[in-house]
Amino acid sequence: MRRMRVNNQSCKPLLRGTLVSVTLKWFPSPDGEHEHKEATIAVWCPYCKRFHTHGWDPANDGRYAEHRTAHCFDDASQFHQGGYYISTWRKSDPEYAGHVVKPGVAIVRKKATS
Questions:
Q1: What's the rounded Cα separation, in Å, for the pair 54 and 70?
Q2: pLDDT digits (tens, 9 = 90+) for 78-101
């Protein structure tokens, strides 16, 4: 999976999407367990006319894009060969308000001890 700045001209085609869910996971670390949240991003596919979902790190905001393999059902989709890049909506986009979790914020904390 390649991650790059959105202003890089090789980030094409770019599909922007909304963070629609968050998953909580616990990971061991040298100073105790830490909570880490991963998000799911939904991007609209212009070929399938439906949303495709992908995993996303909520610490990445609309300035970053990651390459993904297409989830297209339409065999005529031009995304089958090279995939596409995904990113979140930017703060300047009207769709930004739809995020369940605001992108660009690392959501990590230590596990509470009893």
A1: 10
A2: 898 889 999 988 888 877 777 666
| Helix intervals (H) in the chain | 79-82
By residue range, what is the domain housing residue 55? Answer: 3-108
Query: Does residue 114 fall inside a structural domain?
Result: no
Do residues 104 and 94 touch, judged by C-beta distance below 8 A? no
Q: Which of left, alpha, beta for 76 (phi over 0: left; psi -120 to 50: alpha)?
A: alpha
Contact 17, 44 (CB under 8 A): yes
* pTM, full prediction: 0.71
**Total domains in the fold of the chain:** 1
Residue 88 to residues 58, 67, 114, Cα–Cα distance (Å): 9, 13, 37
Retrieve residue 34's tokens.
Answer: 């830490």
